[in-house]
Amino acid sequence: MQDRLERFDAEFLSPGIERRRALLDAVQRGEVTDEVLPRDVLTVLLRNEDKVPLSHESLRREIAFYLLAGAHTSATAFTRVLHQVFTWLDANPADAGRALADRGFVQRCTHETIRLQPSSPVGMRWALADVRLSSGATIAAGDKVILDLAAANRDPAVFGADAEAFDPNRALAPGVNPWGLSFGMGMHACIGQDLAAGLVLDPDASSDQHLFGLVPVAVQAMLDRGARPVADDPPQMDTSTTRPYFARYPVTLAAP
Length: 256
Fold this sequence. Notes:
Elements: H1 2-28, H2 41-47, H3 56-91, H4 96-101, H5 103-116, E1 122-126, E2 131-132, E3 138-139, E4 144-148, H6 149-152, H7 156-159, H8 193-197, H9 214-224, E5 228-229, E6 236-237, E7 246-248, E8 251-252
Antiparallel strand pairs: 1-4, 2-3, 5-8, 6-7
Helix pairs in contact: 1-2, 1-3, 3-5, 3-9, 5-9
């Protein structure tokens, strides 16, 4: 892993930093305007080094992680959602029309999939001070706390007696995120949450200007084109990891 990070650094990151620093210097001298600056996270970090000082190693780690979080997790969710939709429609063929006509239905399938299969099944935090939880448990400063997100997302007290099951029609209490804790919460919430999964659709509001999210829109595009699993070429799981990733998921599309 370290070798790959260093190769990524030499080929992409360091040249990118050098180019952006030169542009930022040119903006500072008044030779060019902000319009020439790349609109990306790296530029923002470099432009605000006085506010958020980062070592080169930290910068490399954050940029590499951003690429992983921004691409790999969405691609994984895309395949998982398609699989869940196919499975649901096989068991509920009457919903085939909804999958094509109701974009909110596909978004709810996305939220439900992300709840059941979070990209990171656990979260880890280190306590900066002594904390007493509402349950009465105490956490001492310096303790490492492991949050079982996958278990929390399947809590029957929050998601119902069938919390283990996939159900895009699930009724939730006010204030409960349909994706559970998969995107984190508070200051640690994933900044790509709205981009990936969109906003929760108000059933009484118009969907014309609604932000559905990258994954629901991509899944909807596949369904609109008649995507179906290949009967004699079933999907295969990735055996190189203990996490439930697909290695292959062949589908067919309807003829145009």
